[in-house]
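Ex. 9. Protein: Phosphatidylglycerol--prolipoprotein diacylglyceryl transferase.
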Amino acid sequence: MLTYPNIDPVALALGPVKIHWYGLMYLIGFAAAWWLGRFRARKADSGWKVEQIDDLIFYAALGVILGGRIGYILFYNFANFIDNPLILIRIWEGGMSFHGGLLGVLVSMLLFGRKVEKGFFTITDFIAPLVPVGLMAGRIGNFINGELWGRVTDHSIGMVFPGGGPMPRHPSQLYEAALEGLILFLLLWWFSAKPRPRMAVSGLFLIGYGVARTVVEFAREPDDHLGFIAFDWLTMGQMLSLPMVMFGVVLLAFAYRRRA
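Predicted C-alpha cells for Phosphatidylglycerol--prolipoprotein diacylglyceryl transferase:
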C-alpha cells in the first residue's frame, strides 16, 4: 500500500489570504496552454497570429470557470444548490465539472470566433491539443485536495485518503491525470502536428477524453449523493462521457469522408 502524501491544500497563506494548490493548478494549466498555443501560432502555416492566443486563452478561461462550476451544480449538486444558492460561487471549496467546462468553452469559442472571424471547428481543432495539460493540472489539484478518490482496493497502489475512511483506495485522480492529461496530450499533439481535415482533431479529442474518463470511472468512487445512475455500474461521469465518444466518432468520420 502506498502512503498518501497529505500535502497541505493551502500553498501559501498571507494573513487572511490563502492561496490553494487547487487554484494554482488551474493557473498552471492556463499558462501551459497559453505557451503551447503561442508556440503553435508561430508556425508559418498555422493561420494564427501570436497575439490572438492571449484573447483565446482569456475566453477559454472564462468558459472553463463559469461552465465548470455551473455544470457541477447542475449535474452533481443541484439539490444542495436549491437549498443554498451561494454554493455556486464557492469555487475554492472544489467542485468543477469537466463536461460543464467543455460546454462553457464551446460557447466562449463561438463568441471568440465571431471576434476574430474564424470558423468554430478551426478554433476547436487548434485548442484541442492544449486542453489536456489543463486537465492534468486539475487532476493533480484534486489529488492534493484529497478529493474524488477511487474505490476501495487491495492492490498495492491503494492509498488511505483523509476523509475516505480507513480502507485503501485507488488514486483515481492520478489515473485521470495520466490518461486524460499526459497520454491524451501526447496523442493530440502528435496527431495535430500534420495537416488534418477540419473537425478531425476535435473528434479525436472527444473520443480520447470520453474513453479515458469512462475507463477511469470504473476505479473512481461515485459521488455519495448520486451513487450509480444505472445497472449498478454506470456513473454520472460515464453517462456524460459516452455521448462524447459517439459524437467524436461522427466528427472524425465526417471529417475524412468530406475530404475524400
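Check your answer against this statement. The chain has a mean pLDDT of 90.
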